[in-house]
Amino acid sequence: MISDIGSKHIELLPEMVPCLIAFLKDETPAVARQAITTGTSLFGYVLEKLVIQGLYSSEIDDSTKSSWAWMLKFKDAVLHIAVQSGSDGVRLLAVKFVETLVLLYTPDPYISADPPQEPVYGLGFNISWLRGGHPSLNVGELAMEASQSLGLLLDHLRSPQVKSLSNSIIIVLIKSLSAIAMKRPSFYGRILPVLLGLDPAISIVKGVEVPGAHHALKTAFVACLECTHSSAEPWRARLVEALKAINDSELVGQATNKNSGGVSISNEESLPLKDDNSSMQACDEASSDLVRKRPLAELNNDLLQDDSFSGKRIRQSTHTVQDLPNEPLQVTADQESNSVPVVGSVSSKDKSSGPVQQLVAMFGALVAQGEKAAGSLEILISSISSDLLAEVVMANMQHLPPTCPKTDKDDVASETGYSSCLASSVLPSIQSSPLISDIHSLSSLSPLLASLLNIQPSMSHDVAKSHQSSEEKATDTVETTLLSSSVGDGSAMMPVTLPASVSPFPVVTENGSSAVSLSLNSATEERVIPGVDSPSSIDEIQESHDASHSSNPEVNDSSQDHATSLGSLVPSNVLSTCSMATDVSETQSTGVGIFDTSQASSTASLVTSCQYVLPKMMILDVNLTDEAKDQLQKVAFVRILDAYRQVAISGGLDAHCSLLAHLGIEFPLELDSWGLLQKHVLSDYMDHEGHELTLRILYRLYRETEQDQDFLSSRTAISIYETFLLAVAESLRDTFPATDKSLGRLLAEVPYLSEGVLKLLEGLCCPDRSEKHEKDFQSGDRVTQGLSAVWNLILLRPSSRARCLLIALQSAVHSAEEVRMKAIRLVANKLFPMPGISQKIEEFAHDKLHSVIDDVPAIEDMDADESTSGLQEDSKLGKPSSSRGQQSDNALKSSTHLDQNVMSSLISEAQRCMSLYFALCTKKRSLLREIFTIYKNISKAAKEAVHRQIPILVRTVGSSPELLAIISDPPTGSEDLLMQVLHTLTDGIVPSQDLISSVKKLYHSRMKDADVLIPVLPFLTKDEIFPIFPHLVNLPIEKFQGALSRVLQGSPKTGPCLTPAEVLIAIHGIDPVKDGMPLKKVIDACSACFEQRKVFTQQVLAKVLNQLVEQIPLPLLFMRTVLQAIVIFPSLVDFVMEILLRLISKQIWKYPKLWVGFLKCVTQTMPQSFSVVLQLPAAQLENALNKHPVLRPPLVEHASQPNIRSSLPRSTQVVLGLVQDLQASSQGQTSQSQAADTGSSTADVATELTQESSAVS
Amino acid sequence: MGAKVRYAMVCSSNQNRSMEAHALLKRHGFDVSSYGTGAHVKLPGPSLREPNVYDFGTPYKLMHDELRRKDPDLYKRNGILPMLKRNLGVKNAPQRWQDNAADGCFDVVVTFEEKVFNIVIEDLSNRKQVLIRSVLIINLEVKDNHEEAATGGKLALELCQEIESADCWEDAIDDIVAAFERQHKRKLLYTISFY
């Protein structure tokens, strides 16, 4: 706003500027900034007005004067700001103001120093106009002031001030200064030393944070370099050095970041570099000498524009001659963009292209100054590392006009023009074959040639073969020009080899070579050009030449053109090893020389890949339809592929591989070069050459994707890469047996793995069921193959590790058990121990394990629903099954019967999810607990699965401390599992003392369930068993039986811990009341014992009874046991009778319960028991007979036998009715007493009964 | 800062990276424009040698329709169609940086490639610097593919938010850049030019 008004009404300025100055001090940066901005434009405006007014009239009006005065004040204020430390935002603008000031105050060399005739405002002005005199301004003073202001800025950048500046200020300062330097080159001398000195200072001060400043500095240097003003020149060398330093540090940074891909190529690359180094230094000087002798004007023409110019020119001329917009353009573009290598660009080169390009430009500029710059040139050369120098030279060569060895291949049988063309696509190799023979003799002259020849023989070998195979007779006209120029004092021999094969265009050749020789003449003192003509059908060539010559005058022109430029370039570019080749292949049928640019690129790529420092082929092309070109390319490509086989035999593979890879890239996609390559690769894979080739191709593609920031090409390259890799991988999979390692090797070595390949791998590792059926016989091996590949990848490719791991893990939960087991072995044995990924594996397994909780029951519920709808009975059985433990197992079994399929699939599903975790448990035992923890939450199917798997696991783990810890403190709900573990642990082996004590601990602390003790029972001592025996008896009968057998069996070492007799006695020792258990249990336990007749034999029973009968009081179940014993072993009757007799002596009738049993026993053991019964006192006898009337008749009969009767006491006889009435009174007495007895005994019975009932309840 | 900060996102074709950032910043209410520095707008074609080349100013819609007609499968698969669709929702057509003088001054220019960064700097220094308005140019290296562009867009947004929140970016830029580099392990390159 103010600025607008100010510029229109200058008279108002005196009032406005104070305001601006006040604003400068405003707290808000934005206000101050705006003030500076406004002030700056006003300043320029006022100054301009002042100048112009002063120029055209000697009077200046007052308003302008006062405005100017104010503007000067404003200037001072701003200068102050620029120096002070304050808001960066404001300072930036202040610096900018100073820049403007300096620029305004100093003469602009780019604008005419003479003022225009008419006063024109707003078009800019030049302070130098003032030289003529000005009423109020003095040029000298202004210059002084400008210089001071500049000094102000410069001071800032000098250390130590620079340390206190922020990056942004530094950047702006640098930019301002470089702008000043460029616009006012006279200040170079002041500005550049500071800038040059700045670099190290900054890097020291700011450490890591300087890329911005660095970049600005670099840009500034480059900009300064580009400046052509004379006063800039002395500084070039130093600028170059500084740039180099900057770039070096950047390179170092890049190198560390650099992907290791493409290493092989860059290694090869370094070779020729070194070769060149030795001679390079000397050559350089020599060349500069040469150059100096040439007229400056010409040099300026050619060199100032950089070498690429001449190359470009030729391209363009070729372009006009021929109607091929695409390909020449592409090449030209490559040159324009100054990327060093055209096709075979190598990563190391890519990086260095920046500095190299700058150096090249520098050399050009220095040389352009001729003698003047000789000094600095020398400095420059000596300061540059030999490596860099070599690169510069090589970079320069890229810009050489491609003069090519001309070979014509006149196919004798050529009816189509294509075949000859395609022959020339193999051209570089073919060419070299005759060349080598020629050069060979001269090779002693050229140390460099030797290095070339190292590679070439193989090439020629190949070529010879391909010649034969194609049965072509090639007529080659070769002229090898060997330039050997010795320069300087003569001690340095500079061999310049210039093998150039000559085309059938003699005129062209003449033009070219004469031009070459001409230019060389002017440059060198000694030169040898031996021409070697190989036998050829000259007539034919001549003829064809005529035809094409007439039709293509332009071709000649352009070759001439380019020949001259070659001439000018040869010396300046230090062509110690420049073999130039021009390829002109001529087609008879059309009579037109055909040059295929794509061939050019292919040959060029071969050249680069072979590491010859060769220029590109200069190739002319004549109208070809697109289809024809495509066809040509394709045929050529196939030929190269064919040739590959021969190459493979003869060696020289390296070059060929690279060639093919490059070709693949260069070819248009629709030609399906990939398809061809792929076929080829596979056909050759057996010899392991395909692998190499594939890798090269992939790396080539990879580089394409990586280096190309360009969206489209990188995308395309990526897709080609992925398709190719996938195709190769697939065909490897399908063509080779599963045991073949090729696939794994390929995957391990390719630049990166695409998603497609990973999917393929996944498919291998986790085959679909359907797929599996197809090739069942080998799927197992396939899985092994896939898994081993995955393992390799995990080991070798950290970047794909996660993905590969996932594949392995997926495979480890595969539904097919075979696959799963393989994968689990891999994961658990190989991968799990790897520290980096074990955590992931563990998490995965853990998740899977937990998925059982969520997934499997869901399925089960569904199934339950199904079965409910199907069979009502089912659901009835199914419902209680939800309860845990033994019952659920039973239910499980029943439901398994009903739909076994569903169940088994559920189980296997659970197993699928859990096996991995189980496998991991063997490696990391702390994981074990988790199984126990989740056990209570998982479905029965899952439990079943756990039960199936746990024995294996437990056996592997053994009674490790972790497991013992779990045993002594198991998670709730895991009892069943725990039991199984215990069983497993004790199955067939002696459990460790630790285990036993853990179990005991568990029993005492947590679970009062004697269940847990069963497994270790055999290993307990007698003393330990007795206290728990009641609990054992209290168990469900099945378990008790188990426990019983264990106890009886005992451990192998110590033998049975209890004898059967001891067991029975122990059982009888149980007091249902005291031990709090139903009598029924004890009875059952007894029965259980009796069932085992082999163990509890007659003798055992007898022994037991013998002991029991001695106990006081008698065991409750004694009589029952006696009865049982008789039932089981009738032969025991006699023994039992003895027992009964002893009972009588113990007054058995005093134990009402036993008495009942006693009576029962005697009843059963009739008639043997008669003698016992008769031993009873009369009262008891009567009682017995009353209770068991059946006893009476046989007993009476028995007692009536005279011998027995005589031994009977009278009372007994009375009871039996053998003695009638005689002793009624005594009988009554006895019966009375007996009645009293019975009365008391009945009372006993009553009490006992109540006791019993209470116990039962 | 009194006035609203004006942002420009610049990549080479004004299709992928700059548009991703443009869309994102726009959604977050920034005053943002986007440009490309290339000579043409290039989109992947059926092969490496057959890109689809358009002039700047060709509406996204037109490209979208044309490519969909050509090979809907291919362009959908390589993400070009979705990208164009996104773009045409953001603005009409790709714009070229070098021709943007009429769009006024920007305060912050974010480039996504060093080449582009350099082009922008050079272009700015070639313009007449009459306004003396500073402009911050930051380069955030982002590879030209969809995934990276998405990350790059987010980073650019974050960066712009940082700048926006600063009272005066000239003062804060060093800290912002340092913090950003530390946080994202990405190198930033910045410079300051003038309009």
Automatic annotation (TrEMBL), chain A:
Residues 257-287, 317-352, 527-566, 864-895, 1227-1257 are annotated as: Disordered. Residues 337-347, 1227-1236 have a biased composition (Low complexity). Gene3D superfamilies: Leucine-rich Repeat Variant. Residues 257-269, 549-566, 880-895, 1237-1257 have a biased composition (Polar residues). InterPro entries: ARM-like (IPR011989), Symplekin/Pta1_N (IPR032460), Symplekin_C (IPR022075). Residues 1009-1187 form the Symplekin C-terminal domain. It holds the Pfam family SYMPK_PTA1_N. It comes from the Eukaryota. Residues 29-246 form the Symplekin/Pta1 N-terminal domain. This is Symplekin. It comes from Musa troglodytarum.
From TrEMBL, chain B:
PANTHER family: RNA POLYMERASE II SUBUNIT A C-TERMINAL DOMAIN PHOSPHATASE (PTHR20383). It catalyses: O-phospho-L-threonyl-[protein] + H2O = L-threonyl-[protein] + phosphate; O-phospho-L-seryl-[protein] + H2O = L-seryl-[protein] + phosphate. It comes from the Eukaryota. Protein phosphatase that catalyzes the dephosphorylation of the C-terminal domain of RNA polymerase II. Plays a role in RNA processing and termination. Its main location: nucleus. This is RNA polymerase II subunit A C-terminal domain phosphatase SSU72. Keywords: Hydrolase, mRNA processing, Nucleus, Protein phosphatase. One of its GO terms (molecular function) is RNA polymerase II CTD heptapeptide repeat phosphatase activity. InterPro entries: RNA_pol_II_suA. It holds the Pfam family Ssu72. Its EC number is 3.1.3.16. GO terms for cellular component: nucleus. Belongs to the SSU72 phosphatase family. One of its GO terms (biological process) is mRNA 3'-end processing. It is found in: Nucleus. The lineage of its organism: Eukaryota, Viridiplantae, Streptophyta, Embryophyta, Tracheophyta.
